[in-house]
Amino acid sequence: MEYDFRKIELIWQAAWKKNETYKIANNSLKPKFYVLDMFPYPSGIGLHVGHPLGYIASDIYSRYKRLKGFNVLHPMGFDSFGLPAEQYALETGQHPATTTEKNITTFKSQLDKIGFCYDWDRELKTSDPLYYKWTQWIFLQLFNSYFCNTQKKALPISLLIKKYETKGAMPITGEIIPGKHFTASEWNEFTKQRQEEILMNRRLAFSKYGEVNWCAVLGTVLANDEVVNGVSERGGHLVEKKKMRQWYLRITDYADRLLEGLQTVDFSDSMKEMQRNWIGKSEGAQINFEIKDIPQKISIYTTRPDTIFGADFMVLAPEHELISSITITEKQEEVAKYIHYVKSRSERERIAEVKQITGCFTGAYAINSFTEKKIPIWIAEYVLAGYGTGAIMAVPCADQRDFLFAKHFNIPITNIIGSYYTGENANNSKEAILENSDFLNGLLMKDAIGIAINKMEALGIGEKKVNYRMRDAGFSRQRYWGEPFPIIWSDGIALPLDAKELPLQLPHVNTYGPGPDGEGPLANIKEWSSLIIPLQERTEKELSPNYSIMEKDNEVPGYINSSVHQWKNTISFAKQNRKDTTAEEDIIWQELRDKKIAGCKLRRQHPIAGYIPDFVCLEKKIIIEIDREYNNNEEQKLFDKGREEWLKEAGFNMIRFTNYQVNNALDIVIKDIEQAILNNDKVALNAGSNNPIFTRGTGVEVKRETSTMPGYAGSSWYFLRFMDPNNTQIFCDRKISNYWNQVDLYVGGTEHAVGHLLYSRMWTKVLFDLDLIGFDEPFKKLLNQGMIQGSSRFVYRKKNTNKFYSYDTILDELLFDKIHVDVNIVNGVELNIEAFKKWRPEYENAEFILSNDIYVCGTEVEKMSKSKYNTVNPDELCEKYGADTFRMYEMFLGPVETSKPWDTKGIEGVHRFLRKLWRLFYDDFKGPIWTTTTPAPLERSGGEAATDAELKVLHRTIKKIEEDTERFSFNTAISTFMICVNELTDLKCHKKEILQPLLILLSPYAPHISEELFQQLNFDQISFSEGDLQGGSIFDASYPTFNSSLLAETTKEYPVSINGKLRTNILLALDLEQQQVEEIILQNEIIQKWLEGNPPKKIIFVKNKMINVVI
RNA sequence: ACUCGGGUGGUGGAACUGGUAGACACGCAGGACUUAAAAUCCUGUUCGCAGUAAUGCGAGUGACGGUUCAAUUCCGUUCCCGAGUACCA
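Output (structure tokens, whole complex):
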């Protein structure tokens, strides 16, 4: 019997699914282990060979841990909100929900072919309302919390309000600053707007005016990475900064804790470093300078307060707010000109011309409080408005940029560091002894820093200050395909929705273009965003319980509205309706007819009072309506509304869907229906009826927030939802999150180093502070996967001809067109000429100039991408070699963390290994050849016990595989398997005693073949050929235990070196001591040859290692 | 420019706290089986020199230098490649 991997893999994948082998319980006596892959975005292009690398690594580790006796959580889901789907929708008109769903299906089928052990019952999609309900809920927690600076943690904002009401906001020491401090009674006198404004300054999720990249031509706001060199990535249109109301997360408050937390997690040094750089903490001083003749003060930030006496000028950022008030009259024109110049400079120019020195003097002078010295105040673009205070004191002798600036504008330079300053360059050393520095004279600079700050604090002119480079995280996007904010704006006040009003669903739209004034597409849907309800506009008639659409309405199929006495008529209409259905109703009915949701049945066209709903759940009193075209008719809308009100009084809630939704987002429709029935907490799910307005809005200007949340919203907490994915009461049950706790192993690429990882770390800390979870770091250990690059192939066509020259015949590449060729039609570097001719019609008649009868292609390592024709599809490899081979080859390629180019060629070697393994069990002619000493009833017998040599091979393998898997060194583990199989083949070992433990070791790496052989070894033919796992899966076997005594040796082949250079090997007993060894060594012929009769200077002997003779 | 990684055969890579450099695999060369091919198996394969050969000698982990009985591993200088950050005061 041959190794038929196609058949084997299909059987076992189906069997594992059927037997729920990967289903994981939330409670177990076993210790827990949580392995997680970074949330993938389901792109439309599908997987290439680079994507599964990390998934395979985490899969191996999960299976290994399971065998080691852990309860292993290893889920998978999709970060399914995001721009590409929306972009695609803009281009093709297909709804993002539809394309996303399609992509996920493809993605999943690709993953399944590789045989991962995901518990698919826990699958998540961030765009699923049942999921983003909780994203919105957590947002509300952030909105309703503030960071307490004394306790250094998040607290409910209600505590802050209480404090303001009773104590106000007063300084602990020092003066009251108007606008910042207030008393309790002042607070209570403030208008609602003012109070909300103050609270907004403390909320962890807050809204303020911020700058966005606005592209007038595209009429939309662009993300930073959509702006390249100051123009839009698409189309190259001009992008300018525009102030708009935006949402932010106050991540800066968590900067210190994010830094401290890094010490408790096991991330790579480079990863921690990146995060530290991003946070960019610096300690220094904020110093206030008086301005000559002007009452205001300039506040500057510096990390080197010790150099204050070397401050020869001040520099303000061109955006600094004091500029207009300090500039003297004579300089005003010049300053205005300079500011205009700076504004006109595009981002591109500013970056490109970093070295160019520009600036402008304001004519104003600051005063050094220690010396009363006048210091000129300049403006220059090298000072950034966003960092520190947007103003610096320039110390040219100690800072290179200040130095260049001073030289350029001929500003005299004061030397405070003696010989450390050469006049050629600035010197930023902290080791110099200060001169010309008043009370700091004679001090070492690094000692002077603290002394200077103390003095400034004592004099009240400055204070110690910590600065961060990190900014608060922008949290709104003017886009459609994201979570809507559960926020209503009413007269400038942001009102949160109530938790029970969640999820606030994304309304379905037909166009995805931007809204007015840079708002997102949602702003176009007035019936969703605008919440001014014409309550008073409704007529008496509509509100009356007896309201009905009269006889004429009978013409409208599907809708009958009558008073009670028309009941009989109604029933016969209902019967008729059941026959005359619409296509959309049929679609829904197919989905729901036999499904019992929460034990409830759904009926179709079942009369309720005088009304015949499309579908109704009588038990839960929920009506489902599918709206058709005529429901958009204004008159019809009024009728519908009245009907809805009336039914509500009868206790029926109505949810509505459009035909469009049914046709394009059926899964969401079904899910909504299920949830409405499951919850039955009177939460109306449909956007139109989800309306908090009656209690909260003032009715003047009430509208929903039309921005949506960014991609990282859903991915910041998904690892928690995986623990308890179906909970309808809370985002994750506390008992369950206590059990699973942190992610023990998190696998993913470095591209998420600062974005996703920082955000999810912050969210975790907030949830921890609010006592919603019991740990404050999400990921205990991070394993970075390297990128798999593409190895591109090129053909060379002589310019203006159709002649292709083999790469090694080419002398001057410039005479040729270098063309990417599909790597799948190249074998190594040899082009498959026939396939190439068929590849593109224009190459059909191509001529080839060969070398040694073959066409050699050029090669280059590039990013793997469709456009470079260097992608390799995992499906094809699984088809050709099997998933086990594919998995092992990806791992065999090298360490998981390093990037490397893909080369399919080596895959044969791994495949050969699996076939060789198979041959330990099966002979092509003889069939099964394994033997056992203790045969099961149906097993072949007559085997002998394993020999010492065989046991040694096995146990050496156990030891090494365990060590290597434990340290994620999968490539060396695979080598070890190869060595083991090679050795067992040499030993002609076919003993179950040896082979079965080997299969268990191998099963995390090659699950299909291992399961197949394991079942064959233990159970009868009939059961395993059907994929029957009655006898238990190999994944529930227990891991072989390593027995060190089997490896104990009594002798060793010692390498003997002369002066460190290996000369010979000598077999010695391990218990020999130095002296005995020396005696033996000196007898050795080769050693004697090298000694040439002289005695050795020294003999170094390291037991069980080596011997070195020094001569 | 700064910070962090990394440079080992024709290729991917191995060598764990300094102790036999090149495991394992690809590729290549030769051979066996076969009418032939595929598949499979066997042998060789860091480079140079000498030898029919077993083998011996020399060089060798980007380059140069140092520490050490011994360095791919530790230290210093330098070159190259990759990643991240970028006027951050």
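The radius of gyration of chain A is 37 Å.
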